[in-house]
Amino acid sequence: MRMALRLARRGAGRVSPNPLVGAVIVKDDKVVGRGYHRAYGTDHAEVAAIRDASGDTRGATMYVTLEPCNHTGHTPPCTQAILRAGIRRVVIGLRDPNPDVPGRGAEFLRSKGVEVTEGVLTEACRVQNEVFIHYITRKVPFVVMKIAATLDGKIATRTGNSQWITGEKSLWMVHRLRGELDAVMVGVGTVLSDDPLLTCRSPRPPRQPLRIVVDTSLKIPEASRLVSSVETAPVLIATGPDIDLAKKRRLEGRGVEILTLPLYNKKVDLRALMSKLGERKITSVLLEGGSRLNASALAQGIARKVMFFYAPKILRGQESLSMFAVPSPESLREAIPVHDWKVRRVGKDFLFEGYL
Known about the structure:
The chain has twelve helices and 18 strands. The chain is elongated, with a radius of gyration of 23 Å. By secondary structure, the chain is α/β, with parallel strands linked by helices. Helices cover 28% and strands 26% of the residues. A nine-stranded mixed beta sheet has the order 11-10-9-8-14-6-15-18-17, sandwiched between helices.
């Protein structure tokens, strides 16, 4: 199962909105087939592993990280492929969380005489597919809030200078995340201060993410690097109803998508934005906002995971920008708890990860 998990990881950034799945076939104590879901619309992991085994599957055991599908989607049911291959035992890491699947693969296989074992490395399989599980059960993207900060929680100087707080390894990890998640989102303040590209610049990226700018009043400069690079990666601007329509038409003429949304506390309603993204099968968003967008994301409850990269630096100063532009609460009871957290070193920095 650990081998299957490692194989599944190779599909990151390519299979969305499908889950990451890996499969290993063992016969006579030898691995005879390996497979993983390579990209959306291609063979599922089970079929890939059966093909890799080249017919040496009669009486074998298959280890698969997610319950085999028993319905026809873009591909035929994997359960049928398992039966045709003569596999006698299937070991499953995680049951399919999709509430819409018409029938369970495990029950179907048992009804056909296949021995099924469930619950092997379930937690590892669940974490690997936390994006898929969240999306398929809630129909909105899994939002990861990424922040790079100093030890005293500052994300920029009083002049807005923030490049670069963290080190090279942290930066490359963020680029890898951009390649693996469906979209990256910032506020217009970040565009005005940094003029970022927001593309994935890691070696051989799986694909470029959808680049989203939350811009209530459509302030984005038409000469920004985001607008100028729309042919490299798509750009979506989430804006409010009261905007310059002539500027909207000019931006749309250059290939930028403008999405008009209702307001929440005089800003773009982020929950409405998440619903629209979910309808488009955007399963995950990397939130790289500034202090205002970070505060709005917490206030509207759209963030599910935090990834805070801390550099061993102390910036100091009341005017330096903090992680969240929000008035300080009066009581510690108003603090937002973070659970299932862990800390690890990333080059010269350290990364705090947890769930909201």
